[in-house]
Design brief:
The complex is a heterodimer.
Chain A (H helix, E strand, L loop, with lengths): L1 H46 L2 E5 L4 E5 L3 H9 L2 H31 L6 H8 L1 H5 L2 H11 L15 H10 L4 H20 L1 H12 L3 H9 L4 H30 L4 H11 L3 H26 L8
Helix pairs in contact in A: 3-9, 3-11, 7-8, 9-11, 11-13, 12-13
Chain B lengths: L10 H44 L21 H9 L2 H32 L5 H13 L2 H13 L6 H9 L12 H8 L6 H13 L3 H9 L4 H12 L1 H17 L2 H5 L7 H14 L5 H6 L2 H32 L5
Helix pairs in contact in B: 1-15, 2-15, 3-7, 3-8, 3-11, 4-8, 8-11, 9-10, 11-15, 13-15
The chains are: A mainly alpha, B mainly alpha.
C-alpha cells in the first residue's frame, strides 16, 4: 500500500509536467486569444448598446439600450437589404463554387503531361486574388472598353447575345446564358483555395483502393461514388464553410463596406451593433450548413 | 495464381475492350485538354490585358486600331502608379511588415499547434473550437474594441496602475505604429491564424510517436525535442503557412484602414486610389492620371508583383507541401 502511494504522486507529476509544457507551448496564443479575441468580442457586444465617443484619456460611453439595433433594423433601410442581398448571392454561388472546384480538382488529380503547369496556373488566383484586383479586373478589363473597342471582352458575349436576339430566341434564355458565361470568370478566380483543399484530400486516397475496385470490376463511375466521394464528403463542408467566410469577410462585400463607413463616421456603437448582427447571420448560416451536411461526417479522421 | 481478369483470357474480348478503353481515354484526354486550356484562358486573359495596357502610352487608349500590341513601349504608367502608391519606400515598408509578421505568426502557430497535438491538455476540444472561431468570427465583429485596445494601449494594466497615482491612466497610442502587426502575429491572432494552428496541429499529430519517444530517451528536453525533431517534420505546414500568410496579410485592406492607421500600407493605398479613380476626382495631379485605367492596371501589377515573384519561387514546393500537409484534416 505504501509503495503504490509512493509511486502515484511521481506518476502524476510526470503527467502534470507534460500538461504544463503543453500550456507553455500554447502560452503566447492563449494570451493573444484572451486579450485580442475574447475580450474584444464581448466588449463589442457591450458597445452595441452604447453611444461611444473618444475623449482625452479614453472612451466616453453612454448607455442607450437597443436604440442602435432598432435604428439599424427598422429605420435605416440599407442594412437589412444589403444583408439579404449578400445571403442570396451566397446561396447561388456556394453550390456552384463547390461543384466547380471539385471538378477541377478531379481533373488536376489525373496523370497527364503538363499537370504541374496546369496546377501552378490554377493556384495563381490563390496568390494574386485580392478582392481589390478582382474588382479592377471586373470593372475595367471587362466592361470599360469604350476606347479600345469590344475586342478585349473575355468572351464575345455581346456579339453572341445580339445574334441570338436576331434569331428571336426568348430574351430570358439569352439573359440566363450571358450571365452564366460572365460568371465563369468569378468562379475560376474565387475557387483557388477550394481547389487546393479538394486536391490535397484527393492526394491522400491510397491508389490501392482504386486498383482493388478495378479488379473487382467497378467502373470509373462506381469508383467515384464509392471511393472518392465518401473521402471528400468532409471536405465539402470545409470548402463550403471556407466559401461562406471568404465571401462574407472580403472587402468587396457591401455589408462590410458599410460597417467600415460607419466606423469612419465615428458611429462606433452603431457599427458594433451592425457587426454583431452580421456575425449572428453568418453563425446561423454556418449552423444550417452543419445541420444539413455535418451529421454523417466523422471528424475524427 | 488466380486470374481475376476473365475478359483478358478471351482474345476477341481483349481486343474490343482494350480498343474501347483506348477510345474512351483519348476522348477524355481531348475533353480535358479543351477544358483546361479554356480555363487557362479565363485565368490568364485579365493578366495579359493588364500587362499590355500598362505598358502602352496614354495616347494608344484612344486609337481603336491598337488592341494588343502597343505602338511604343513605355514605363510612364508605372511611374504614375508608383507615385500614387507612395513610392518604392512604401512598397518596401509594407513588404517588411508583412514578412516579419508572417515569420512571427508561423512560429507562434506552430508552437500552439504542437501544444494542442502532442500534450494531454484539459479542454483541448475547446481550444480547437476557439482556433476555428478566430477564423469564423469576422474581424469586423470585434475590430472596434480592438482599435481602442491599441488606441489606448495598456500593457498588462501597468498604465492603469500608474493612473491610480497620477489620476490619469498612462496609455500609448499604437495605432500608427507597425508594432501592432507584430503584437498580433506574435500572439497568433493575426489574419486567419486559426487556420494555421489547426494545420500545424494535424501535421504534428501525423508524426509517429516513436520519434518523440526516442528523443526523450536520449535525454532531450521538451524544447530540444520540439526544435530538433518536430519542427523539421512540419516543413510542409511551414511552407503553406508562409505563402498563405504572406498573401492574406498583404491583401488585407481592412485591418490597415481601421486599426493600423498608416497611409503607406499598400493594400489600403490600393483601396484609396481605387475609390479616387472611381470618383474620377481631378483634385490632384495623380488623381487625374489615375482616372486612366492604364495607370490603375500598372498599380495592380505593382501590387501583385511581390506575391507573384514569391509564388514563382515557392510554387513547386508550395503545391507539393499543400498536398502533403494534411490541410484538410
Amino acid at each position: 500500500m505504501k509503495k503504490t502511494n509512493g509511486k502515484r504522486p511521481n506518476f502524476m507529476t510526470l503527467e502534470r509536467k507534460s500538461r504544463w509544457f503543453g500550456y507553455v507551448f500554447m502560452a503566447p496564443w492563449i494570451l493573444g486569444l484572451l486579450t485580442f479575441f475574447i475580450i474584444p468580442f464581448f466588449k463589442s457586444v457591450g458597445y452595441s448598446f452604447q453611444k461611444l465617443s473618444i475623449g482625452d484619456g479614453g472612451l466616453i460611453t453612454e448607455w442607450v439600450g437597443f436604440t442602435n439595433y432598432k435604428y439599424m433594423l427598422f429605420e435605416e433601410a440599407n442594412f437589412v437589404r444589403q444583408v439579404t442581398e449578400e445571403v442570396q448571392a451566397l446561396l447561388t454561388n456556394a453550390p456552384i463554387i463547390l461543384i466547380f472546384s471539385l471538378l477541377i480538382a478531379l481533373l488536376l488529380n489525373q496523370e497527364f503531361k503538363g499537370r504541374m503547369l496546369a496546377r501552378s496556373l490554377f493556384f495563381v488566383p490563390v496568390v494574386v486574388a485580392s478582392s481589390l484586383v478582382i474588382s479592377v479586373i471586373q470593372s475595367d478589363v471587362f466592361t470599360n472598353n469604350a476606347m479600345s473597342g469590344d475586342e478585349s471582352a473575355i468572351f464575345q458575349v455581346g456579339v453572341v447575345a445580339s445574334i441570338m436576339e436576331n434569331m428571336q430566341i426568348d430574351s430570358s434564355i439569352v439573359n440566363f446564358l450571358t450571365t452564366a458565361v460572365s460568371q465563369i470568370f468569378d468562379l475560376t478566380w474565387k475557387s483557388g483555395v477550394q481547389i487546393l483543399l479538394f486536391l490535397s484530400a484527393l492526394q491522400r486516397i491510397p491508389p490501392t483502393y482504386y486498383e482493388v475496385a478495378s479488379v473487382e470490376g467497378a467502373n470509373a463511375w462506381d469508383a467515384f461514388w464509392k471511393i472518392t466521394f465518401p473521402v471528400l464528403a468532409p471536405n465539402c463542408i470545409l470548402v463550403t464553410v471556407y466559401t461562406v467566410i471568404d465571401t462574407f469577410t472580403s472587402s468587396s462585400n457591401t455589408v462590410m463596406r458599410s460597417i467600415i463607413d460607419r466606423f469612419n463616421d465615428m458611429k462606433y456603437g452603431y457599427a458594433s451593433a451592425s457587426a454583431a448582427v452580421y456575425f449572428l447571420v453568418i453563425l446561423v448560416i454556418l449552423g444550417i450548413i452543419m445541420l444539413l451536411f455535418g451529421r454523417k461526417v466523422d471528424y475524427s479522421s | 495464381m488466380i486470374n481475376f481478369n476473365i475478359l483478358g483470357n478471351n482474345p476477341r474480348f481483349k481486343l474490343t475492350a482494350r480498343k474501347k478503353q483506348k477510345i474512351g481515354k483519348f476522348a477524355f484526354a481531348v475533353f480535358r485538354a479543351f477544358f483546361l486550356i479554356g480555363m487557362a484562358y479565363v485565368l490568364l486573359f485579365p493578366l495579359l490585358v493588364m500587362v499590355t495596357r500598362a505598358i502602352r502610352p496614354y495616347t494608344d487608349m484612344y486609337n481603336p486600331s491598337i488592341v494588343w500590341i502597343p505602338s511604343s513601349l513605355t514605363l510612364e504608367n508605372f511611374g504614375y502608379a508608383l507615385e500614387a502608391l507612395g513610392g518604392m519606400s512604401g512598397v518596401l515598408k509594407t513588404l517588411r511588415i508583412v514578412f516579419i509578421s508572417t515569420i512571427l505568426s508561423m512560429f507562434t502557430c506552430s508552437m500552439a499547434g504542437y501544444g494542442l497535438a502532442r500534450f494531454k491538455i484539459k479542454l483541448s476540444g475547446m481550444f480547437v473550437l476557439l482556433a476555428a472561431l478566430t477564423v469564423i468570427v469576422p474581424v469586423q465583429t470585434y475590430v472596434i474594441p480592438l482599435f481602442f485596445e491599441f488606441r489606448f494601449f495598456d500593457l498588462f494594466g501597468i498604465g492603469s496602475v500608474i493612473g491610480l497615482f497620477t489620476g490619469e491612466a498612462a496609455t500609448v497610442n499604437l495605432t500608427t505604429n507597425e508594432i501592432v502587426y507584430y503584437i498580433l502575429s506574435a500572439l497568433g491572432v493575426s489574419t486567419r491564424n486559426g487556420i494555421f494552428i489547426l494545420l500545424f496541429m494535424l501535421n504534428y499529430k501525423s508524426v509517429p510517436n516513436e520519434l518523440e519517444m526516442a528523443a526523450r530517451v536520449d535525454g532531450a528536453g521538451e524544447f530540444l525535442t520540439y526544435f530538433r525533431i518536430m519542427l523539421p517534420n512540419a516543413l510542409p505546414s511551414f511552407v503553406v503557412t508562409f505563402v498563405m500568410s504572406m498573401v492574406w496579410v498583404w491583401n488585407d485592406s481592412f485591418f490597415p484602414s481601421i486599426v493600423y492607421r498608416q497611409d503607406f500600407f499598400l493594400a489600403k493605398r490600393m483601396l484609396d486610389i481605387r475609390t479616387l479613380s472611381n470618383q474620377a476626382l481631378g483634385i490632384s495631379a495623380y488623381a487625374t492620371n489615375l482616372s486612366e485605367t492604364n495607370t490603375m492596371f500598372a498599380a495592380c501589377i505593382i501590387f501583385v508583383l511581390p506575391l507573384f515573384i514569391m509564388y514563382m519561387f515557392a510554387q513547386k514546393l508550395f503545391i507539393q507541401s499543400a498536398e502533403r500537409s494534411g490541410i484538410t484534416g
